[in-house]
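not sure who needs this but someone in the group chat was asking about Integrase core domain-containing protein from Coilia grayii so here u go. i didnt clean anything up, its just raw.
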Amino acid sequence: MEELIKCYFEIGFNNKEILAVLAQNHNIVVSIRTLKRRCRELGLFRRRNQSDIDDVIAFVQEELRGNGQMQGCRWLHLRALQRGLVASQSTVRLVLKALDPHGVQIRRARRLRRRQYTTRGPNALWHMDSYDKLKPFGICINGCIDGYSRYVLWMEAYTTNNDPKVIASYYIQCIERVGGCPERLRADRGTENGHVEGMQLFLRREHNDAFAGDKSFLYGRSTANQRIESWWGILRKQSVQFWINLFKSLQDAGHFSGDSLDKSLMQFCFLELVQKELDEVAQTWNTHKIRPAPSRGEPGGRPVLLYTAPQISGGEDRLKLFKHDEVDLCKEECTPKGQLPCDETVYDLSTLLMQESGWNTPKDAFEAAELYTLLREEIQNNL
């Protein structure tokens, strides 16, 4: 256990996060007192006489979720002292400025705070959408993110994101993986989301909460789907822009015309690599630490911890249980991703050409680009 504590301490987890991850991932349940004692024994310190800065941050976060967002530094400092924290007013001021810079400006200008995006915890609202930046090249992306934790629930690359049965398979696979369906799910009005809407309403029809039945699915414009739109911007910067540049360079060199053969060859050569990178980006995102932004309704922390251990941030898991026989019925209306990355004829022909020519399966994007040009030239020469 000591090695685990040291590991999580050194990567920046606070005490509550360490306790949560020990219990969640390693089935080790200890008290905060035991953890602090072990930290002292290991020479791991964050504080001396002053209160731990994490405690001050947690207090300010809690206040900002309520009427504290309307109050200034001196008021919050007084409340901190009443709560038993030992911190200077300057410390509280710096924390408040870091967590809620927009709120500080509003209070200085004496303006009212407008309504903001808020959810009560993980699985209260999922945001689902399709991403078409690679679609001209035959690769279609669909994803879903939890609104509270910003945890990426799925991120799938495939030959289509228009087939409602394929999109429904992503939803069903996800709810089986997490053990329930969301309280609400939001998507745009595209026909590809019709099956997911029907399944969400069906699985939530007998629940008795305020968002049961017809209220459990929301339609809205894609551009107004805040959480997933924000994620697409991150994904483009971290991954997709690279693929756009690579594919456009092939196009500019005259190696891509946009016809069905070229798209199938792109899928054959690149689809698995794109999916692998999506998985890696999602994993990195889910484990990185997000700065809290109470002014935007965003608690701070790591998405994976905010999703699996919401008590750390004061959230409440809103996952809704389903009946397994009803999920089995839904599966009958799903079409999972096929085993082949492209059209079967193109796949068989490309595989045969690789075997005959001794070409290897590409390990990276540039090897895939070389294979693509070789296959395209060989096939066109034999048409």
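also The radius of gyration is 25 Å. if thats useful
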